[in-house]
């Protein structure tokens, strides 16, 4: 009996980009917290990997290879295994639209491969955990009688917004896209304050994105046995409480912050050079400017940012990456070969003693460095959690996905961020540019001693307390494990 129980496995399916890889860190938590399992019931974890083609994103595809390579030697002892799903052939139509559209279709193309994997190991599978954007796999599991859970990599506030918009559409026959043009602020139960229409994310109010993809994701969330959220109660009390107790919403489990501490893509000379440069800077004197693995700015905006940085007089570390051309919108940002081709003339010479322009950065390592005192960020949720974990305040500059909503929650609801902008969009059709003066003001604000900095320091301690034994996320994780094990026949 004991051997049979130890042979059970949990199958995890991440969305194949860096920003969603926290599901692998979640897997490691399952394997390290044996004390939370009932006696004799231990799970192994298998992560099913889908690789993006290198021409779309070399970073994510390289990371997938690193994950499987790093686990191969110790897989038998640490019970964490990676399985590469067979590659599928993208059609030219996938590449003609957005990154999200490309990856959505890649996930759909893997549904039969996932079903075959689950069927072949059905007797040993205790459950399936799917990324918030891989919910098509829930149906594959249901057909085999396997329980599914959703791993939600965005905040609880956005989960509430998605479910609210789905209710408006399905039960009240409301055109959600109309919210974008609302004349007044929009009431959403997961937000304590009314939300300005201009910060509603395109994934909710763009008719095609909503009807083709995100409406279906929201419907699928309600089919799950539970929703695991990478957040913690002390950070989002209102949003989390708004989700509790609803009969139409599965149990939610806030288990964060879960940070990406896996194998590093940055163990090359560039990373060590960055950290060495930081070693030479005064404490809390450097602002990190970084827009994540998917974020980039057009050339006009890059020059305006450079001007604002220079005028602020602040020491800076700038992760500057090239935006993919319009005809290759599905591709991720790439590296510049020469920064001089996009930056104002003489900028690098004038800022040589106070600033450093680089490509990809080891973000968590940089935020952990004592020289870093502020963070100009796109407000991707992983970056938000990392900044709070390290006690580094953010100046908000959202780009896409739910980031405008994240920026609003951080700055206006929680008082945990300074504002540069709340409503910028990476590929804005009106060509809007954030002016250098606004950038300068935001950078100065985030670097000063303020109520925001004080609150961020307090949230740093709360974030760390939440995951230790007895903390809110630790206890939520324990409830989740017990719920998962209750699905297994006694």
UniProtKB/TrEMBL annotation:
Concerning InterPro entries, the annotation shows: UDP-glycosyltransf_plant, UDP_glucos_trans, UDP_glycos_trans_CS
Keywords for this protein: Glycosyltransferase, Transferase
Q: Which domain of life is it from?
A: Eukaryota
The record's Gene3D superfamilies line, in alphabetical order, gives: Glycogen Phosphorylase B
Q: Which Pfam families match?
A: UDPGT
Question: What's an example of a GO molecular-function annotation for this chain?
Answer: UDP-glucosyltransferase activity
Q: What is its EC number?
A: 2.4.1.-
The entry assigns this protein to a family as follows:
Belongs to the UDP-glycosyltransferase family.
**Record-given protein name:** Glycosyltransferase
What is the organism of origin for this protein? Sesamum alatum
């Amino acid at each position: 009996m004991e051997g049979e129980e130890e042979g059970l496995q949990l199958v995890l399916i991440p969305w194949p980009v860096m920003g969603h890889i926290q599901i692998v860190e979640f897997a490691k938590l399952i394997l390290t917290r044996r004390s939370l399992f009932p006696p004799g019931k231990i799970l192994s974890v298998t992560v099913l990997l889908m690789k993006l083609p290198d021409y779309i994103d070399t970073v994510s595809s390289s990371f997938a290879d690193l994950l499987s390579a790093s686990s191969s030697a110790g897989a038998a002892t640490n019970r964490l295994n990676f399985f590469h799903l067979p590659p599928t052939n993208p059609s030219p139509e996938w590449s003609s639209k957005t990154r999200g559209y490309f990856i959505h279709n890649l996930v759909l193309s893997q549904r039969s491969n996932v079903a075959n994997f689950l069927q072949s190991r059905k007797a040993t599978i205790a459950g399936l955990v799917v990324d918030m954007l891989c919910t098509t796999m829930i149906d594959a599991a249901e057909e085999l009688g396997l329980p599914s859970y959703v791993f939600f990599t965005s905040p609880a506030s956005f989960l509430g917004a998605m479910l609210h918009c789905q209710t408006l559409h399905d039960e009240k026959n409301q055109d959600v896209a109309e919210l974008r043009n609302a004349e007044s602020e929009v009431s959403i139960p997961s937000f304590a304050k009314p939300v300005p229409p201009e910060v509603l994310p395109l994934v909710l109010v763009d008719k095609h994105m909503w009807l083709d993809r995100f409406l279906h994701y929201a419907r699928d969330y309600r089919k799950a046995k539970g929703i695991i959220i990478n957040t913690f109660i002390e950070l989002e009390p209102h949003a989390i409480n708004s989700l509790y107790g609803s009969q139409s919403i599965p149990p939610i489990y806030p288990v964060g912050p879960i940070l990406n501490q896996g194998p590093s893509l940055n163990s090359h000379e560039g990373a060590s050079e960055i950290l060495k440069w930081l070693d030479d800077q005064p404490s809390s004197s450097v602002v990190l400017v970084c827009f994540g693995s998917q974020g980039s700015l057009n050339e006009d905006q890059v020059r305006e940012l450079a001007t604002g940085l220079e005028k602020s007089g602040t020491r800076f570390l700038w992760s500057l990456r090239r935006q993919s051309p319009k005809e290759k919108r599905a591709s991720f940002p790439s590296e510049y070969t020469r920064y001089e081709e996009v930056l104002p003339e003489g900028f690098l010479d004038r800022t040589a003693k106070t600033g450093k322009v680089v490509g990809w950065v080891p973000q968590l390592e940089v935020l952990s460095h004592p020289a870093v005192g502020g963070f100009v960020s796109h407000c991707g949720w992983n970056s938000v959690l990392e900044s709070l974990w390290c006690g580094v305040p953010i100046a908000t500059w959202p780009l896409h996905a739910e980031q405008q909503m994240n920026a609003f929650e951080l700055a206006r609801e929680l008082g945990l961020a300074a504002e540069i902008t709340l409503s910028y969009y990476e590929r804005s059709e009106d060509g809007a540019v954030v002016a250098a003066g606004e950038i300068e003001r935001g950078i100065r604000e985030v670097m000063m001693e303020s109520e925001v900095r004080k609150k961020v320091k307090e949230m740093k301690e709360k974030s760390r307390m939440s995951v230790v034994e007895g903390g809110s996320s630790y206890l939520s994780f324990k409830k989740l494990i017990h719920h998962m094990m209750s699905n297994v026949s006694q």
